[in-house]
């Protein structure tokens, strides 16, 4: 079942209706039933391994909580994390071995719910929360259908409690949720799916376009914009559907293209993934004996600053290699992780040098042009990183880089119009991106557009809603001839 289908929206509508018809303490059962049905519709065979993983994790949570002996608790959490990571690694590596892939059932969304489960078990181990007593409620948390495909990577402490307690009907929250779903749908099927046509045409025919650096540069920019519209569009839909149930999900995007640095970008992009790696990998790695000893040696020899920097370098390197492997097991993903990790480390190490350079050049931090330059630079950093992860191998990356530096012919600009999009498609994408930019600027200033529209009189407000639905239905790419069934990160 596609998230961009009438069947999915019918399921959501029925789920919301049944949810509010049930008594408060049983409302979570409507979500469980809907989640089971939705996941079954994605592939019935994948439901069994997800249930098995959930049962294993549920039992381990209870056993870890009840254990008082420190060594035993450490052994139990180690076993649980190793088992979950081994399953995830097996699934990801199976794609590289044709014989192995025949016998492996790949549960959709495993990269997301695995991290959520590991976070839950570690929080129980660290005594930050109590283990879930109900196996069905725990399964509801794991399979929660709005976020199962692409996150956000929810923490049990937030989502689990909301599912358990149930939510009272709130008309305003229901309307806000539907608005956010429409906004996400607009970004997905009006903008992202159009851009994906051009990107696919170029990257699938790299030999054809290797002599045209301008076309490849355009494809790189389109690819970056397409990913953001697709991924943030899905997140908006997930958060919006949750809001219709009265449930609050974690924020996953906060206008990342307004970021002025690589570190700032990852504080705004896929925020639940960044937060997960910070809490469950960066901080634990920095506290390991090996890192402490290495940092202490550096501190004794070069001073306190070297001690802190050594700890930062070690933890950052581990986090970004792990982040690359989480995204994929190909060499390009490892290079992608090293790319971002290196940028993070260099920016930290050279911070003092950059400050001196800005002082020498009399650059004012708050100057508008300086801010715009930093945003543009960060966007280009992201574009380049996205190009690395989008290729099947590093040979293709080398081809694109060579073309960008040696095959830039201004006359090739006209070829961009022949990448599968017609003139009106480019116009729609351009207008859509301008609208997203305007909305983002308004939101960045702290204005909630949904709250503002809620103050309108009923007639103009509902006319606006009807107009939004009509626009999406008229210019969105869906139906026969279009593949809107998959999102960029759906099979991670």
Percent helix: over 70%
Helix/sheet category: mainly alpha
Number of strands: 0
Question: β content, as a range?
Answer: under 5%
Distance from N terminus to C terminus (CA atoms, Å) equals 17 Å
Uncertain segments are: none
Count of all domains: 3
Mean pLDDT: 90
Major β-sheet annotation: none
Radius of gyration: 24 Å
Topology:
Elements: H1 6-21, H2 28-42, H3 44-66, H4 70-94, H5 98-101, H6 110-125, H7 135-143, H8 156-165, H9 171-203, H10 206-209, H11 213-244, H12 262-266, H13 271-286, H14 289-302, H15 304-327, H16 331-349, H17 351-360, H18 368-390, H19 394-406, H20 423-444, H21 449-454, H22 458-475
Tell me what the structure shows:
- Helix 3 packs antiparallel against helix 4 and helix 13 packs across helix 15.
- The chain is mainly α and 492 residues long.
- The chain has 3 domains: 143 residues, no CATH class; 153 residues; 125 residues, no CATH class.
- The protein is built from 22 helices and no strands.
- The mean pLDDT is 90.
- It is globular, with a radius of gyration of 24 Å.
- The longest helix has 33 residues.
Short summary:
The chain has helices spanning 6-21, 28-42, 44-66, 70-94, 98-101, 110-125, 135-143, 156-165, 171-203, 206-209, 213-244, 262-266, 271-286, 289-302, 304-327, 331-349, 351-360, 368-390, 394-406, 423-444, 449-454, 458-475. The chain is mainly alpha-helical and 492 residues long. Helix 3 runs antiparallel to helix 4 (70-94), helix 7 crosses helix 8 (156-165) and helix 14 runs antiparallel to helix 15 (304-327).
